[in-house]
Amino acid sequence: MIVFSALRIPKEAADAAEALSDVLRQRTAGSFPRRENYHITVHYFGEVNERAVRSLDRILKTHPLPELTLRFDRLLRFHGSRGDQIVYACRECPELQEWQRELSEAYRRERFRFDKKEYRPHITLVRGKQGRIEIDDISVPAVEFQPEEPVLLESLQIRGQRIYRPVYGAQEDNYDD
To answer: pTM for the complete prediction?
Structure first.
């Protein structure tokens, strides 16, 4: 299964991200994540087996997220080989950065491989071959929130839709939307 660790976001952050996504939909084509998929990735592991998933989950649970407040208040463009990503981004949060570094070290000690790009907490709004779109004139709402506890998510394709679902404790979802 394809797995990553992530922070789930509360309703007010999802509302702000969805409003920005609606503005971007009027300006470009691309892949727009479903609201239910909004999250802040911590580590991307890719394809792993069930044994590895249990170890990843154990490590995640032994590194509780400190109490912190995130402030999302800007759009960023990440350039990629398959097109740009436009993301709703977080201001500096040293507590989150330090927690992520400590968690990374714990995963490295257990010899897990993960995406080692610079950690920039964000919520992806659109990705793909949309070309250069102007984002400087978009009014970006500021939202402050405490992220929910970290969770391992699996990436699934269900009836042609990308779904991110908790690996453990997954609830029934309606994928017909």
So the answer is: 0.89
